[in-house]
């Protein structure tokens, strides 16, 4: 099956090099889900992408501390991630989150629908924040608060937000699902209608076996804490000088980027504040951006309009004007309306859209391709069809494609978190 991952494969970084530079990070993930994900070599095509991924996952999941939480809480964390991935229709993440939850002690029966009221509330939370448009109703918040305190509830929301990043990237790129993951979960998830879909060629599914996933043990914890110092050392190089205090972090971003990202003020975890601040700084660094920070902000606007998030629409416009002070309101509205276009399904339609956008905005074909590609990946699931792969993505370099996918994935993370904080009474405005 044709995927963007197949196009990017020749530019991907060899696993041997990743092990040389990031061995503790790779080993930690393997302990969590049983495999080293195939996304790693693709993300490293644009190094900021790999760094972003490895900052978000451990910090928004509060690892490794969350591993020594009660069996119930860490299993429910996995269930929240699974529900979010299933709702976003990312078969890759659905498999990984099932494996994560099983290893944390969640009963396989939960995936068959045999749930307690507490588990059902977690599933509903994942669905509410991951749907497009997202909507977290007050009655669900009330139900959740009968089971969780504020800290526990925020941790669930942060895990769902983190999956927003992973769901978008893995689905849009079509990362190949590892054979080990299929063997771990296919016999459990098959009754739910799950298949690997585009994430695994059919001929590679002929020799599927069924693994018995073991739950965390003392040996697991010892192995995790053995890898932790190396992972912490790498992370500290990336986050050096970044405060975990939201007020200081916002002031830092205002000084470095020109915008303070009000969403940060709602986040209680200093780890998450520090990680997100670093991610936003690095992804909006004009010196490392291949596609251009102004173009990225405008692509973010297309995503925000697609998911109907007014907060992100305003934020994307603010960023776009910050990076391009000559940007007119007419141009902004024209780009915003790209969210209303259908994703092209043939060469003629893609050519028409490219010509219309380049003419209306007086921009290059490459910039127009970035906007059309963003439209294709903004829905869940993403619609990276054969026309996009043959007519649109080849107009962008592998580095630009990874960078753009990473930025829209960050936007989906921010979208889910903004919807959560607004719903519980902490709007970011």
What is the topology?
Elements: H1 4-8, H2 15-33, H3 40-43, H4 47-60, H5 71-87, H6 91-103, H7 117-130, H8 138-145, H9 150-173, H10 179-189, H11 218-239, H12 246-256, H13 270-283, H14 293-306, H15 310-323, H16 329-336, H17 347-361, H18 365-378, H19 386-392, H20 398-423
Helix pairs in contact: 2-11, 4-9, 4-13, 5-6, 5-7, 5-9, 6-10, 7-8, 7-9, 9-20, 12-13, 14-15, 14-18, 14-20, 17-18, 18-20
Strand content: under 5%
Main sheet properties:
none
Oligomer: single chain
**Principal-axes shape call:** globular
Provide mean pLDDT, rounded.
Answer: 95
Using only C-alpha atoms, the radius of gyration works out to: 21 Å
Poorly predicted sequence stretches spanning 5 or more consecutive residues: none
CA(first)-CA(last) distance: 43 Å
Number of beta-strand segments: 0
CATH topology of the largest domain: AhpD-like
Helix content: 55-70%
Count of discrete alpha- or pi-helical segments spanning 4 or more residues: 20
Strand-and-helix sequence, N→C? Answer: HHHHHHHHHHHHHHHHHHHH
CATH superfamily of the largest domain: AhpD-like
Derived structural class: mainly alpha
CATH class of the largest domain: Mainly Alpha
Number of self-contained structural domains: 2
The CATH architecture of the largest domain can be named as Up-down Bundle
């Amino acid at each position: 099956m044709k995927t963007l991952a197949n196009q990017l494969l020749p530019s991907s970084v060899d696993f041997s090099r990743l092990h040389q530079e990031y061995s503790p990070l790779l080993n930690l993930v393997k302990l969590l889900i049983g495999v080293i994900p195939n996304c790693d070599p693709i993300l490293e095509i644009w190094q900021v992408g790999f760094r972003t991924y490895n900052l978000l996952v451990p910090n928004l999941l509060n690892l490794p501390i969350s591993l020594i939480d009660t069996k119930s809480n860490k299993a429910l964390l996995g269930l929240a991630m699974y529900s979010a991935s299933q709702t976003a229709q990312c078969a890759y993440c659905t498999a990984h989150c099932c494996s994560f939850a099983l290893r944390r002690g969640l009963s396989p029966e939960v995936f068959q629908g045999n749930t307690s009221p507490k588990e059902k509330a977690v599933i509903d939370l994942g669905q509410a924040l991951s749907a497009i448009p997202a909507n977290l109703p007050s009655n669900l918040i009330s139900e959740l608060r009968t089971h969780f305190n504020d800290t526990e509830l925020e941790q669930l929301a942060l895990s769902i937000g983190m999956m927003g990043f992973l769901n978008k990237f893995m689905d849009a790129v079509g990362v190949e699902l590892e054979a080990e993951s299929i063997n771990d979960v296919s016999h459990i998830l098959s009754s739910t209608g799950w298949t690997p879909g585009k994430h695994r060629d059919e001929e590679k599914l002929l020799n599927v076996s069924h693994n018995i996933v073991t739950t965390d043990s003392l040996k697991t914890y010892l192995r995790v804490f053995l890898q932790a110092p190396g992972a912490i050392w790498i992370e500290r190089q990336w986050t050096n000088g970044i405060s975990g205090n939201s007020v200081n972090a916002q002031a830092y971003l205002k000084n470095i980027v020109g915008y303070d990202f009000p969403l940060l003020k709602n986040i209680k975890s200093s780890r998450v504040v520090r990680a997100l601040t670093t991610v936003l700084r690095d992804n909006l660094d004009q010196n490392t951006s291949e596609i251009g920070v102004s173009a990225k902000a405008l692509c973010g606007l297309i995503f925000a309009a697609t998911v109907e998030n007014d907060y992100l629409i305003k934020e994307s416009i603010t960023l776009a004007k910050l990076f391009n002070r000559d940007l007119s309101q007419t141009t902004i509205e024209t780009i915003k309306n790209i969210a209303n276009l259908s994703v092209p399904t043939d060469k003629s339609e893609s050519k028409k859209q490219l010509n219309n956008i380049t003419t209306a905005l007086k921009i290059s074909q490459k910039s127009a391709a970035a906007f059309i590609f963003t439209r294709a990946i903004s829905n869940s699931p993403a619609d990276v069809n054969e026309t996009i792969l043959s007519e649109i993505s080849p107009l962008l370099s592998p580095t630009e494609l990874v960078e753009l996918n990473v930025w829209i994935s960050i936007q989906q993370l921010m979208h889910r978190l903004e919807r959560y904080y607004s719903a519980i009474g902490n709007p970011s405005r």
